[in-house]
Amino acid sequence: MTGLFDAEPVRAQDAPRRRILHLDMDAFFAAVELLRRPELRGKPVVIGGSGDPTRRGVVSTATYEARAFGVRSGMPLRTAAKLCPACVFLPVDFAEYRRYSAIFKQAMRAVSPVLEDRGIDEAFLDITDVRGEPEEIAASLKERILAETGLTCSIGIAPNKLLAKMASELDKPDGLTVLGPGDLERRIWPLGVRKVPGIGPKTEARLAALGIRTIGELAAVPMERLQAAFGRAYGRFLHEASHGIDEEPLVTHWEPKQRSRETTFQEDVGDRSEIARTLAALAREVAAELAEEGCVARSVGIKVRFADFETHTREKKLAAPTAAEAEIRKAAFECLGRIRLDRRVRLLGVRAGDLSRIG
Fold it and tell me: Is domain 12-26+95-185 annotated with CATH 3.10.310.10?
């Protein structure tokens, strides 16, 4: 971008105007479950694992009523139950969520074919060449999704992916936010730095130590200072992100890099025969997914997490690319043989990597 590194950085609204839409379904898993269990509306509901908070598992999502108690995605179910004893816990039903995901993404593709799939509950859409005002396009899309699924979503529209994603978070749930000229300083700069996708808790803490807590404060720091503190690449990212600069295109096609399966045992396992049976089952699932997608793997790896959370990984390069269950299983067991099983095992995983498509 011309002038990107000048003393006065070019802001996103000065660049050629793209119109990027980010759609994020509201508490997606929980919302789907509430369609099936309308009697739970207005109650704190947690979706995760087997739906039993006395067993191992983590929160996949929670209703906004549960979030008010501090329940968050990725939290152990046991912790969620302590924070909110009144929560209703339900198991994850990925098949049903994928069905609804396909419906709302088909509605998005009817607006524009340039879609970047970001997961089961969100996607980007390039509406630069779509006729109409952005608010009208978004409102129409929200109405169609509500009519076809009974679910609400939040939409953000901005000149790039970074700002569009941030915009979709500003007015949740059921929000519609369009960022235009002047909104960077007015609506984005007052936010905390964690609102920037790509800034996690560790970076937040390091920035706080430098006296930087808001995006606006981050934008005021010279890029050279950020690069000195965080490295050349990440320092540049922090500088550009705080100024709303993002030229990343929408990725409409993803080539798979790896496929994996893992399981956390409900009780730590010391029985080697059970570990072996589980490893074989995981290898079978990975091989089946490769075959279904028409892919072959050039490497196989495993992950073993012990009861004390110490985690070991091993990998084996294959003599030839394969999707054969027997070959993947054999490689996984060879990897397992290179790990000393001197403690009970909490988690076991199998990964097929360095993928390529057949033909």
Answer: no
Is the CATH number of domain 28-93 3.90.550.10? no
Query: Tokens 């609102």 map to which residue?
Result: 195
Q: Beta strand 153-158 with 176-178: parallel, antiparallel or unpaired?
A: parallel
Instruction: List Cβ neighbours of 92 (8 Å cut-off, separation of 6 or more).
Output: 29, 47, 48, 49, 51, 60
The residues annotated with a catalytic role in the active site are 122
Running DSSP on this structure, what letter comes out for residue 9?
P
What are the 10-residue block averages of pLDDT along the chain, 359 residues in total? Answer: 29 63 96 95 94 91 94 93 96 93 97 94 96 97 98 97 97 95 93 96 96 97 96 96 95 83 91 95 94 91 95 95 95 96 95 87
C-alpha pair distances (Å), 58 with each of 68, 89, 142: 18, 11, 30
Q: Where are the domains of the chain?
A: 12-26+95-185, 28-93, 192-242, 258-357
